[in-house]
Design brief:
mainly alpha
Length: 50
């Protein structure tokens, strides 16, 4: 493997694994609303808990 192939491989790995880490951090900070807590008011008023 030449240098450009290794650099591209490292870039791709950082992109994929970094995206996974950022997605997990986002889900920890902003968890999904459990279906038991979803009401008609939540859907019709388009209120989103932040």
């Amino acid at each position: 493997m030449n240098t450009s192939a290794i650099a591209l491989m490292i870039f791709a790995m950082v992109t994929v694994w970094g995206g996974l880490v950022l997605a997990v951090i986002h889900l920890i900070r902003h968890p999904d609303v459990p279906i038991e807590h979803v009401t008609e008011d939540y859907i019709s008023d388009e209120k989103h808990p932040d």
